[in-house]
Amino acid sequence: MDVLKQRSSWPSSILTGLIGWNGFLIIVALAFGYPTPPSVLFLVGTLAAVVQVVALRLLFFVLKLDRGLAYGAVWGAITAALIFLGESVFFPQLGEHFLVWFLTAVYIGPAVGAFLSYFYRDDQEIEAAATPGQPVDYGRDGHWLEPFVFGAVAYLWVFMPRTADLALAALVVGAMSGVFAAGASHFVLFSYVRRTGIPFLIGLVGGAVQGALTGLLFRGFADSLWGDPIAVGTSAGVLTYLLTLARGHSLACEEADREKAEGNVSTPEPPAEDAE
Hints:
The chain is 71% helix and 0% strand. The chain is mainly α.
């Protein structure tokens, strides 16, 4: 969908909030071994994300989020704190470990607000440089959601969840893992790296290390997994990296071919003047 390539569009903004809120709430619960079900935290995070993003988008220019990341971060923190305090009244599960949840919320909020500001300003620059009357080409930035999707798909496929809570946990952890894998995929943007086995090595080693660490988050689901949590996580991490690196390699080749084609277009020389 073209609207999702524009990171400052309404759908992209909502997705930014959903990824941030649900990602960190569920990962914090898994990391600390809290008994709060991912399904409950997913509901909390989804409500918070929608309310915060709608409020910040509607008051975007009033709150001066278009002026810089600092405005986004400050108002993101304020709205997150207010939203979480309101949600804590309706979700008694948040009463236990309240301070941890509150600190997590005021960590997520500024990040979401800052990203809304950054995406708006960055898209404005891209659109201003675009050729009038032609569709805007957002380049690699237009593929910003793909790493989340690759990670989510890889973890869901490898973990083969049999419960909704495990599915949500795998979905969120996988999506966040895809972002780190995307960072590694930038290595294949360099032509001299693409001609070596470095990307494949990065995928195996980086994916295995990161996957093993994420596997520790699923120790509470050990009885529902087909193998040891670390082994399952390692497999999912490697698959996430390989998928993301393959996509990065494809995009890099497309860019190289496009630049080569543009470089081969010769500009006609003006006719030489007659010799006197």
